[in-house]
Design goal:
The chain is an alpha+beta fold. It is 18% helix and 40% strand. The protein has a single domain, classed as Mitochondrial biogenesis AIM24 (Double-stranded beta-helix, 4-Layer Sandwich), CATH 3.60.160.10.
Length: 265
Amino acid sequence: MSSNHDLDYFIHGEEMQLVEIELDPQETAIAEAGSFMYMDEGIQMETIFGDGSQQSETGGFMSKLWGAGKRLLTGESLFMTAYTHHGTGKARVAFASPYPGKIIPIDLSEYGGKIICQKDSFLCAAKGVAIGIEFQRKLGTGLFGGEGFIMQKLEGDGMAFCHAGGHIMKRILKPGEVLRVDTGCIVAYTPTIDYDIQFIGGIKNTLFGGEGMFFATLKGPGEVWLQTLPISRLASRILSYGTGPRKEEGSILGGLGNLLDGDGR
């Protein structure tokens, strides 16, 4: 028997998606702060300590504090928001994606009750899904993994929703099949995947390659979800355009454009 609330959902939109969750009376959805969009009458919001799962509710206060405190390592809050339908009939609550991309619905019961995902990809879930932290145990991953070292784990048998940037690709890896990926492009993968960090050899690659010195290796069997636009890549590109000189300044038209914008001195 399922220990998580059974949610019906609808995903709307293309590039800036939202997920609309349909709640029966006394059903609850949980979400990270800042993802809420709208809700019907009869749904009440409540700030909860931790994720509201059975794992976080059992045990003493220190156990709850430790469980919630680990979320700080992933850059998330100690608290989450629960949306419970206290009325009659059905009611809907919606959560929006924070940047252009896709929302990925994941039924945890289809993946052995656990999925590992990037620390900023979790959007919302059925109450009962435990949101914890997943350390990569290999030394190389810890020293050089960057984005891939500390990840989140979603555990339970209900629905969870992750968000990823740009286009989403799902790869199914056969036993022994290896895929080498930029660490930021990994959204989520099943626990059967063997995750490690590999050094990009060659001095020319290191100095002039334009990419990071390390990438992730994913070894099957298992499934992995990839994104084309990691938020870290998007943020660094926006920052470079906002603080640095224009790339076209060396051309005649580039200089003329700066004059017209009032940037010429």
